[in-house]
């Protein structure tokens, strides 16, 4: 168990709070503020305890240089609205001007530092840069679960200089995902989709001894089907992963776990939004490619989901962004939302699908981590969690 913000004194302390405010932007405006909202309990705890919140985050991939469109000004504005108090946004995250600005702050104040990834030293976990950041605070609280798999200066390096604990979001993610690995209620069903089976092999192997069944959709299903010798037409197949796919199937059979693959498909002639959707059975014609699971598969998957007590969902069943190929993902998302199971959705695409179909209220927990949640569920130790103090 890791220490949390409840295990340290905050009054009068400068609390260096690492968050994941990597929000989607369009024309300089935030299109979803979910990541900001999820940090509010931690921030309010600091404010109400008389601490000074020094908030830091990354945004996008500026590659170690200043990119005007990736400044955190829109985030500061939205954070100020949500907190109902002024949030000062600084022009950098280190340097004399930052130190001077912090010297003017008092208990309950909130300040947002500039995008830490404007400095190339951040991603390199540079010791000097980490020391400079650490010099801005008295304690370090990490609430950026979405960046916990990155050994960067603001997630890992700082912890070498300050007492480091988890914020409420981080603690909740560790608790929920830990439950999926350690004490899931049975039957336990994993719903896996997305583009590449290679991205999910580690996850599948770690889940197989724990789950009762794995339901597969998305492009990764075609690599697994091709490995079994099924005709998949022009569908996306990772040819260099067919041997691993076969081994995974054998491994599942040996453990008595079942991997369910699509029995029918929605296909098209080309990977285009305007492509005409065509229904196909278990054999996809040579000139067509799979774009979504078919109705039979969706119904079959719905039955398995309906009987589950625990559900993990990572990855869509098809190209859900295009309405012509969204039915499979929508059906599976609805089945999960309508079930009585404890359900956890992780990964950006799955979360986006849940939002798109208006089903977020039916999911027990929507993880803020994409790569971080995957690595956690693969059984890997995340660097951003490893450096936090043990209770």
Overview of the structural elements:
- The chain has 391 residues and is of the alpha/beta class.
- The chain has helices spanning 34-37, 40-48, 73-83, 96-103, 120-123, 127-134, 168-182, 201-207, 220-227, 242-255, 295-306, 327-338, 348-356, 371-377, 383-386, and strands at 14-18, 25-26, 29-30, 52-56, 88-89, 110-112, 139-142, 164-166, 188-192, 213-216, 258-260, 265-268, 278-280, 289-293, 310-314, 342-345, 365-366.
- The chain has two domains: 5-167, Rossmann fold; 175-377, Phosphoglycerate kinase, N-terminal domain (Rossmann fold), CATH 3.40.50.1260.
- 34% of the residues lie in helices and 16% in strands.
- Helix 9 packs across helix 10 (242-255) and helix 11 (295-306) runs parallel beside helix 12.
- The model has no long low-confidence stretch (mean pLDDT 95).
Give the topology.
Blueprint: E1 14-18, E2 25-26, E3 29-30, H1 34-37, H2 40-48, E4 52-56, H3 73-83, E5 88-89, H4 96-103, E6 110-112, H5 120-123, H6 127-134, E7 139-142, E8 164-166, H7 168-182, E9 188-192, H8 201-207, E10 213-216, H9 220-227, H10 242-255, E11 258-260, E12 265-268, E13 278-280, E14 289-293, H11 295-306, E15 310-314, H12 327-338, E16 342-345, H13 348-356, E17 365-366, H14 371-377, H15 383-386
Parallel strand pairs: 1-4, 1-7, 4-6, 5-6, 7-8, 9-10, 9-15, 10-11, 15-16, 16-17
Antiparallel strand pairs: 2-3, 12-13, 12-14
Helix pairs in contact: 9-10, 11-12
């Amino acid at each position: 168990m890791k220490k949390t913000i409840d295990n340290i004194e905050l009054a009068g302390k400068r609390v260096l709070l690492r968050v994941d405010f990597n929000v989607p932007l369009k024309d300089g405006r935030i299109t979803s503020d979910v990541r900001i909202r999820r940090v509010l309990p931690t921030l309010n705890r600091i404010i109400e305890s008389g601490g000074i919140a020094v908030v830091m985050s990354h945004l996008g991939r500026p590659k170690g240089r200043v990119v005007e469109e990736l400044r955190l000004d829109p985030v500061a504005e939205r954070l100020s609205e949500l907190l109902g108090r002024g949030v000062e946004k600084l022009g950098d995250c280190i340097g004399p001007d930052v130190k001077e600005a912090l010297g003017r702050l008092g208990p309950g104040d909130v300040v947002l530092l500039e995008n830490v990834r404007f400095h190339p030293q951040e991603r390199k976990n540079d010791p000097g840069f980490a020391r400079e950041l650490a010099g801005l605070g008295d304690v370090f609280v990490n609430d950026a679960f979405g960046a916990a798999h990155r050994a960067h200066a603001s997630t890992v390096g700082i912890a070498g200089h300050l007492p480091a604990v988890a914020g409420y979001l981080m603690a909740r993610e560790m608790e929920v995902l830990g439950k999926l690995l350690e004490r899931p209620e049975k039957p336990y069903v994993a719903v896996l989709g997305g583009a590449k089976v290679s991205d999910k092999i580690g996850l599948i192997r770690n889940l197989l001894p724990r789950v009762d069944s794995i339901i597969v959709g998305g492009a990764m299903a075609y690599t697994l089907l091709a490995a079994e010798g099924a005709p998949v037409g022009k569908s996306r197949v990772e040819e260099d992963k067919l041997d691993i796919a076969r081994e995974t199937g054998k491994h599942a059979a040996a453990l008595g776990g079942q991997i369910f693959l699509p029995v029918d498909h929605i296909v098209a002639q080309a990977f285009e939004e305007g492509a005409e959707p065509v229904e196909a059975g278990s054999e996809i014609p040579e000139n067509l490619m799979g774009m979504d699971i078919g109705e039979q598969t969706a119904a079959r998957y719905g039955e398995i989901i309906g009987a589950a007590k625990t559900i993990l969902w990572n990855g869509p069943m098809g190209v859900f962004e295009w309405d012509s190929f969204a039915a499979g993902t929508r059906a599976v998302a609805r089945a999960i939302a309508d079930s009585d199971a404890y359900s956890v959705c992780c990964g950006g695409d799955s979360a986006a699908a849940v939002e798109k179909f208006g089903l977020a209220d039916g999911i027990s927990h929507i993880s803020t981590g994409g790569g971080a949640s995957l690595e956690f569920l693969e059984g890997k130790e995340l660097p951003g969690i490893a450096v936090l103090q043990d209770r």
